[in-house]
Amino acid sequence: MRGDAGSMTYLRPRDPEEALRLAGECPDALALAGGTDIMVAWNAGRLNGRSILDLSGLDDWRRVSTTRDGIDIGALVTHAQLIRHRELAAGWPLLAAACATVGGPQIQARGTLGGNIANASPAGDTFPALAVYEARVRVRSSRGGRELPFAEVFAGVKRTHLAPGELIVSVHLPRPPEPDRQLFRKVGTRAAQAISKAVAAGLLWTDSGGSVRELRFALGSMAPTVRRLRRAEEFLRGRRLDKGVVSEAARLLEEDVSPISDVRSTAAYRLRASQNILRGFLEGRLETP
Amino acid sequence: MRPVGESAPRKDGPDKLCGAARYIDDHPIPGALFGVTVRSRSASGRIKGVRFDPSFPWAECVVADARDIPGKNAVHLLGDDQPLLADGVVRHAFEPVLLVGHPDRATAWRALENVTLEIEPIEPVLTMEDSVSRKRVIWGDDNVFKTITIKKGDAAAALAQAPVVVEGVYRVPHQEQAYIENQGMSAWFEEDGTLVVMGSLQCPYYVHKALQPIFALPAEKVRVIHAVTGGGFGGKEEYPNMLGGHAALLALKAKRPVKMIYDRTEDMQATTKRHPAVVRHRTGLTKDGRLLAQEIDILMDGGAYMTLSPVVLSRGILHATGPYECPNVSVLARSVATNTPPNGAFRGFGAPQTLFAAEMHWEKIASVLGKDPVDLRRRNAVKVGSVLATGQVLKESVSAGKVLETAVKRSNWTAARRAHARWNKDPGKPTWRGLGLSLVHHGAGFTGNGEVYLKSRAGLAIDRAGRVTVLAGSTEMGQGASSTLAQIAADALGVPYGSVSVERPDTARVPDSGPTVASRTTMVVGGLVRRAASDLRTALAKAAGRAPSGAPAFRRAARKLCGAASERRFLAEYERPAGLTFDDVNYVGDAYGSYGFAACAVELEVDRTTFEVRLLRVFTAQDVGKAVNPRVVEGQIAGGTVQGLGWALLEQCVYKDGALQNPRLTDYVIPTALDVPDIEVAIVEDPYSCGPFGAKGVGEMPMDPPGPAVAAAVFNATGLFLPTLPILPERIQEAADEEAARRALK
Amino acid sequence: MIRLSVNGRRRAYAGPPFARLIDALREDWGLTGTKEGCGEGECGACTVLIDGEPANACLVPMGQLDGARVETVEALGTPERLNRLQRAFAEKGGAQCGICTPGMLMAAEAHRRAKGRKDREGICRALSGNLCRCTGYKHIIESVSAALKGKK
Questions:
Q1: What ipTM was reported for this prediction?
Q2: How far is C3 from chain B (nearest CA, A)?
Q3: Which chains touch A (3 or more CB pairs under 8 A)?
């Protein structure tokens, strides 16, 4: 334990208004939700002397509500809550599946969806699912609120486009039409308690003739931020998934990602595994029930 | 029911299950400073200076460096080359240079942010290849800690004439012990000047011996106490000498007790790992696969200081041929220095490295000859009467064939391999499936004359109330030593297991029964306890006039035996079994009194999409002579097997400039419950006449066979021969790509 | 002042609010049964229950615990009177070196209370946030299985 509790400035607002006010007054304060990432950095001695804005008392941000249009997930909703949520499992199963692969039961019980997004890890397990569901992230500050398309949240490794003083309030997932095929696949360093080497989510809609109406496919751990495969998605629109077309889509995947080699995996492996996952999905061999 | 052979509940169970067992960090040490270590970032260099940030409250701290050492600045082990604190020169990353103590733990850690070592770098030697080619000499005259050779017959001549010659190169990496309790020690000086060190450790008398020259203290002024220890696996064999010395040095300077508890990062960066090794085989055979000659070259990376490298190499070379008989053998083994943190003891101690090579080489031979690898092992495995490479004749308790056949049968070898071949032919299947098997032997106890030099002593105390206590310096670190020794004592005395307790290892209270290593505790120390129990039994009978029968008679006999004394002690000292001899210069003779044998069958599948490996079934048969406590033995086998599976499939130390890049359990990945199937264990009992109740060793052997069994299974599944651990999905993908490119060229 | 319940006993905490739960348990209240193995939520040795859910005590600042109900291994049984889960561990050899054991027990306890799956896969999932280096998990899984299947 290299963190020094006495060196920290700790703010714990009781309601959203106080939270937004404090966030405005202390723009350098780190927002804390479940603590499963921030406390790791603190334990390593990397946050000594910092200010912490602990949002965990804001019960208003801990709710899940569904409407005909979609589902609203409060920023402080935990992964465990989402795994247990029946309507999420029915309408957005890829997100539920992703939450079940985050850490182990202890991390799932404390880690939150909003915290996961704010942390902006390139390897965030829920991000590909949020990307293909075209989530909208609602943020607020003392000056007002706005909504960001999920694709526009991340600025880079561990960086978001949130302005100083802005906090994530909730995440909205529009209700997608029933897909013809869907997939969540995490390739981790081991079977549980794993950081992803590559993580994928895909939704596919085809027409009666078997041609692609729409593909949405996103990859994590393959670039500084989660990536939708815009080129492959565009290429496939209206095409039948024959062998040549699938191979071309797998080739186009490369143009939307920039994997690296690090202590967890190699760039070559990440690329090959993702291409194989995309192929398997398009060929109908891989899907999530 | 007799205690030996029963799955008696563990002595240490209840306290551990209630959070009542006190590990070193759980002991309140009143008035203690918390100590931290300032370490070199550089792998090699000269220390030019130390900068202390003046804004930090240094006045509240105690700082110690090499100049504060009252005796010799060396952590004594096999050599004296490793300093307690670097003095002028650093030879590996994370080498300790300064110690800082502060009453507050958080402030002590913050001291590290406020001190900078100025080090002038010297070009480091980071690989064993660079070391052996003397890119730069960094240790002794030639960078070589130890060279050992073994010769039997004339391997060169036999190879020249052999109808078939198969060559192979095998590499195994570092491995982190990853005990879940990090290293930790406390130290203080008593008013009479006695140095007391208490901590997480395997070998109290090693620490006891190492501290004396550092502090220029006689043996009776040093006391080492074992705290409940949260796993060791070899990692707490030698490093506690260093950490105990650090805590004691700070305590000396501060004139206050000191507690030093590493966090995971420091533990992984600075403490020992398994020695990486490169092993080359050249093997001559008949066309039907009978061994004619084995030529083996072993190179191990010892790291920056000698530590235990020579004896790790010794066990490595003695297992290099595998459990097979070959008329002509020539082995050369060298352990060399690099500017990396010293490697050290880890379960198996050199044998898993060389056995991986020996066993994978059979897979290669089988594919060259087009034969079943099990048939080849059958044909060549040792049996009673076989002569090993050292000339040792195996006289008894040789169960290679039995464990092999058990594994073959229980894994449905032939049928399963056939089914997998069919499965793999179908391109619609999501995986490739394979079954692999390995066969190993493992010498029990210290190598060669080691036990003779140790002169271990252990025994029993009995008090006037008839309470019997086991006295041994052997430590409980999870392996079940305390229960096992108590069972042996109870059985030999004819009293219930529950009536025997075990003294906490404390050099002020227990004799030196040798280090808790080398699968020696049950066989060697258990043997001493059994002899002491037999002496005690005789003495009780003599005191009471006849052998006491039943608890009241036992208590009466004890009272008579003790007389005026509060307790009587019965100790036994090690005696080498008759007929064993070993020449430890030429490596000729009986390297070990006895060997355990184990076979492991691994069935797995490789995902065709991601190359991830999923274990389907793991079966292992292991001969331990006699399972004193079958539950404990099964726990050791299952645990060691999973540690071996982790080494084979997941665990990877990533180094850059000689420094570990993944010193966290997040990035150094060990198996979770979801990564392994139920380990199916068959305990085989082929008794050893000189072991207590027939017992041989069990602690290390389970680590040996999983690595090669996994690699063999991946080979069977994919056709890809991967001679390097760990077999990560990345390696399989690379090999698959290379194979595809080769095919495309054809 | 942070007020919480620890093992059924009311506690008031007045130290720095960013101190970790594990340090308050071990150093302020002497509850050293909760162990630290990694300080990053990876090994699970510090698993406790917070309002009935499993949590790594090394990742929870005290400031988050006002009004919370915390349970540690010390709440289960005593060496003289083990509870059912602990008895199963004692019989099946679920504890070896013992350092992961308190965390394993608390993760298993959370699983039991949540009426989780009793098959091997379900138990492994429940324990997948807890690392053990001694047992290969075999006897731990057998212990939890026996405790879940045994009669009250």
A1: 0.98
A2: 24
A3: B, C
Q: State the average pLDDT over residues B213-241.
A: 98
Q: Do B641 and C37 touch (CB under 8 A)?
A: no
Q: B13-20+456-573: which CATH architecture?
A: 2-Layer Sandwich (3.30)
* Residue numbers of chain C with a pLDDT score lower than 50: 152
Instruction: Residue B331: name the closest of B597, B153, B162 by CA.
Output: B153
Spacing of C-alpha C52 from chain mean position: 11
Candidates B6, B11, B17, partner chain C, best to mutate (most C CBs within 10 A): B17
Beta-carbon count within 10 A of B308 CB: 27
For B538-573, the pLDDT digits (tens) are 999 999 999 999 999 999 999 999 999 999 999 999
Written in H, E and C, the secondary structure of B432-497 is: EEEEEEEEEEEECCCCCCHHHHHCCEEEEEEECCCCEEEECCCCCCCCCHHHHHHHHHHHHHCCCH
Domain over C2-75 is classified CATH 3.30.559.10: no
pLDDT score at C151:
53
253-282 in chain B: CB under 8 A from chain A: 263, 265
Whole-model pTM: value is: 0.98
Q: Which of A13, A18, A49, A47 is nearest to A33 (CA)?
A: A13
Fold classified for A5-54: 3.30.43
Kindly tell me if the per-residue pLDDT of A81 is higher than 60: yes
DSSP at C69: E
pLDDT at B629: 98
Chain B residues in contact with A195 by the CB 8 A cut-off are 666-667
pLDDT, one tens digit per residue, over B246-271 is 999 999 999 999 999 999 999 999 99
Where are chain B's structural domains?
13-20+456-573, 31-122+183-261, 277-446+586-745
Q: Which CATH class is domain A181-282?
A: alpha beta
- Answer whether the bond into residue B726 is a cis peptide, omega within 30°: yes
* In chain C, domain spans: 2-75, 84-149
In three-state form (DSSP H/G/I as H, E/B as E, the rest C), the secondary structure along B178-228 is CCCCCCEEEEEECCCCCEEEEECCCCHHHHHHHHHHHHCCCHHHEEEEECE
Q: Kindly identify which residue of chain C lies nearest to residue B681, measuring between CA atoms.
A: C138
CB A123 within 8 A of CB C69: no
Could you tell me the fold of the domain covering B277-446+586-745? Aldehyde Oxidoreductase; domain 4 (3.30.365)
Cα A153 to Cα A145: distance, rounded to the nearest angstrom: 14
What three-state secondary structure class fits B543? helix
Domain boundary assignment for chain A: 5-54, 59-174, 181-282
Pick the CATH number of B31-122+183-261 from 3.40.50.300, 2.170.270.10, 2.40.50.140, 3.90.1170.50: 3.90.1170.50
Q: Residue B38 belongs to what H/E stretch?
A: strand B33-39
Cβ neighbors of B583 (< 8 A, separation 6 or more) are B589
Q: Hunting for tokens 């060298």 — which residue is that?
A: B334
| CA gap C54, C68 in Å, rounded | 13
pLDDT digits (tens, 9 = 90+) for B192-202: 999 999 999 99
Contact by Cβ (8 Å): B133, B144: no
Whether the Cβ atoms of residue A61 and residue A76 lie closer than 8 Å to each other? yes
Fold of A59-174: 3.30.465
Write out pLDDT tens, residues A266-275.
999 999 999 9
Q: At A39, is the secondary structure helix, strand, or coil?
A: helix
Task: Specify the CATH number for C84-149; select among 1.10.150.120, 3.30.460.80, 1.10.10.10, 3.20.20.210.
Answer: 1.10.150.120
Comparing CA positions, the residue from B576, B611, B609 lying closest to residue B594 is B576
Q: Pick the closest to residue B96 from B47, B135, B61 (CA basis).
A: B47
pLDDT digits (tens, 9 = 90+) for B17-72: 999 999 999 999 999 999 999 999 999 999 999 999 999 999 999 999 999 999 99
